[in-house]
Automatic annotation (TrEMBL):
Binding region for DNA: 124-218
Protein name: DNA-binding response regulator
Lineage, top ranks: Bacteria, Pseudomonadati, Pseudomonadota, Alphaproteobacteria, Rhodobacterales
Residues passing through the membrane, by range: none
Modification sites for 4-aspartylphosphate: 51
Keyword Transcription attributed: yes
Keywords: DNA-binding, Phosphoprotein, Transcription, Transcription regulation, Two-component regulatory system
Length: 221
């Protein structure tokens, strides 16, 4: 799951990126508003963490442009300012949530999880599909109640398919949201990864739609 971080304070951006990586997500950093606007407009992300006080183009301007372009990705605004009217302006501009600096990293992650859940129609941090259960808060996977050991790559793939439950996800989309950009997977990497997961969780959870991709069905029980 790819997350855009638009933040000009390098230490904060890198810290957020490290935490997101540990949470099984794929962060990408833009250090100014112009770059952030361009990436958000041309690349696919599950959500964005957007600072208001940015060089070249401020965060509110970036957000307004995204919304004018019809981009509906969830956005958390970050600001060091305490002015309540600016917060109202940010929400009116299309922000989904707001967090003031300094902030606790745990709160940022909790808010991000909530936005991603709402976007996928999920109400809790626990996803279930047949015998498979994923606890996103604890980052644990189990099958029939028994803990299952998965690699970070397997976890990211399951996480993305769970958030896209009921939708067919192409191999290209999985590659974008499961692999880091500096890693070039082999042409059959997704197929191999899916096969490995099926051996661990059973063959009835992840379906294959030949020529289209993979999905976890909504009505799987």
């Amino acid at each position: 799951m790819r997350i855009l971080i638009v933040e000009d304070e390098r230490k904060i951006a890198e810290l957020v990126a490290d935490v997101l990586t540990a949470e099984g997500m794929i962060p990408e950093i833009a250090s100014d508003g112009e770059e952030g606007w361009f990436l958000g407009s041309t690349e696919s992300y599950a959500a964005a963490i957007l600072d208001i006080g940015l060089p070249k183009r401020d965060g509110l301007s970036v957000l307004r442009n995204w919304r004018e372009e019809g981009l509906d990705l969830p956005v958390i605004l970050l600001t060091a300012r305490a002015n309540w009217s600016e917060r109202v302006e940010g929400i009116d501009a299309g922000a989904d949530d707001y967090l003031g600096k300094p902030f606790q990293m745990e709160e940022l992650i909790a808010r991000l999880r909530a936005l991603l859940r709402r976007a996928s129609g999920q109400k809790t941090t626990t996803f279930e599909a047949g015998p498979l259960r994923m606890d996103l808060r604890q980052m644990r996977v189990s099958v029939d109640g028994k803990p299952l050991k998965v690699t970070p790559l397997e976890y990211r793939l399951l996480n993305y398919l769970m958030h896209q439950r009921g939708k067919v996800v192409s191999q290209e989309e999985l590659i974008e949201n499961v692999y880091f950009r500096d890693h070039e997977p082999d042409s059959n990497a997704v197929e191999v990864l899916i096969g490995r997961l099926r051996r661990k969780i059973g063959g009835g959870v992840i379906e294959t739609r030949r020529g289209f991709g993979y999905l976890i069905a909504e009505d799987l029980s």
